[in-house]
Amino acid sequence: MYLMEVDRVLRPGGFWILSGPPINWKTYYQTWKRTKEDLKAEQKKIEDLAESLCWEKKYEKGDIAIWRKKINAKSCQRKSPNLCDLDNADDVW
User: What is the value of pTM for the model shown?
Assistant: First the structure.
């Protein structure tokens, strides 16, 4: 739900930046007291959802990952039927 709301308010060509868990899980998994598998799966879930929202991962280094929403969202074929209807994207309720 969070990423769908970010997608709703993010302008075409806008950037979403994630800093912190699960980014850089390979370094911090012991500090966060979580398993490698759990954090890897969590990051994959975020990346899969971002891709289904037509965001392109631009950068990942250290604790930061950056995605960019495609400029021409109309040319993008959303991959999940569970995402917001593009005809009324402001109706999140």
Answer: 0.69
What are the backbone angles phi and psi of residue 48, rounded to the nearest 5°?
Answer: -65, -40
pLDDT digits (tens, 9 = 90+) for 58-84: 998 888 999 999 887 666 766 554 555
- Residue 67: both structure tokens together: 């995605």
List C-alpha distances in Å: 85 to 7, 80, 88, 90: 12, 11, 6, 9
Phi first, then psi: what are they for 16, rounded to 5°? -120, 130
CA distance 26 to 29: 6
CB-based contacts of 61: which residues, under 8 Å, 6+ apart? none
